[in-house]
Design goal:
Blueprint (H helix, E strand, L loop, with lengths): L1 E5 L2 H18 L4 E4 L6 H12 L9 E4 L1 E3 L10 H8 L11 E2 L8 H14 L5 E4 L21 E4 L2 H7 L11 E4 L2 H5 L3 E6 L5 H9 L17 E6 L7
Parallel strand pairs: 1-10, 2-3, 2-6, 3-5, 6-9, 9-10
Antiparallel strand pairs: 4-8, 7-8
Helix pairs in contact: 1-2
This protein binds 2-amino-2-deoxy-6-O-phosphono-alpha-D-glucopyranose.
Length: 240
């Protein structure tokens, strides 16, 4: 597992956009695994800027998102469906039918998750999976647990995640469940790029890089991935 430390989140976003751009130059029909949350926002802005400048195109790209809340209307302002459209999809030439998020309201969550994993396989697998990390070390919504998960599944969110994310939910209460790519799904990606910024992520990053590989800190599994890169700002890297 490699990591790079940046002086600013702007520089980090430029470097992350470069990684995506390099892939898209080589493979116009790349399969991207995407993340939500604050961490990737600047990278998405930079990708939109490069699209507007005519430097990249998403016309043949396929995307799969890491996770989605359960029991939240698809068009709710806090759904990850809305997030992805507002922060990336609405601003580039990606085809709606090539974007995939799990349906958090699916009647059969198990079936929905299994179908999602099958679709990823059918698409040829994920070329680059972008990740953020939770303060408790979660990736996607893979919360600290006794075992690493395999395929995508429905998860009960930990109180620490509810506390961290409930700031976004002013009207409706934050959902207690989500659908997430499993650790096994994430680990199948050919390349993984994780963004962590701010001191609140410092302990998770220390555990990810210096700690043992344990499902109590799910991000630590990246030590076992052959091509995982962590992009950090100085604050997130402050305990290394
Ligand atoms: C959220 C998401 C994750 C995200 C993480 C960090 O709960 N489920 O996919 O990477 O927590 O979020 P942020 O980037 O806002 O700190």
């Amino acid at each position: 597992m490699e990591y790079r430390i940046f002086a600013s989140t702007d520089e980090l976003a430029l470097a992350c956009a470069d990684i995506f751009m390099e892939l898209l130059k080589e493979k116009k029909n790349a399969v991207l695994g995407l993340a939500t949350g604050a961490s990737p926002v600047k990278t998405y802005q930079e990708l939109i800027r490069r699209y507007e400048a005519g430097e990249i195109s998403f016309a043949d790209v396929t995307t799969f998102n890491l996770d989605e809340y359960c029991d939240l209307p698809k068009n709710d302002k806090n759904s990850y469906y809305t997030f992805m459209h507002e922060n990336l999809f609405n601003h580039v030439d990606i085809k709606e039918e090539n974007t995939h998020l799990m349906d958090g309201n699916a009647a059969d969550a198990e079936l929905e998750a299994a179908a999602f994993d099958a679709l990823i396989e059918e698409a040829g697998g994920i070329d680059i999976q972008l990740l953020g990390v939770g303060r408790n070390g979660h990736i996607g919504f893979n919360e600290p647990a006794d075992h690493f998960s395999d395929g995508s599944f429905k998860v009960k969110l930990k109180q620490s995640t509810i506390d961290a994310n409930s700031i976004y939910f002013d009207e409706n209460p934050m959902p207690r469940y989500a659908l997430t790519m499993g650790i096994g799904t994430i680990m199948k990606a050919k390349k993984i790029v994780l963004i962590a910024t701010g001191e609140k992520k410092a302990e998770a990053i220390r555990a990810a890089i210096k700690g043992e590989v344990t499902p109590r800190c799910p991000v630590s599994i990246l030590q076992r991935h052959p091509d995982a890169l962590l992009l950090l700002d100085k604050e997130a890297a402050s305990l290394l």
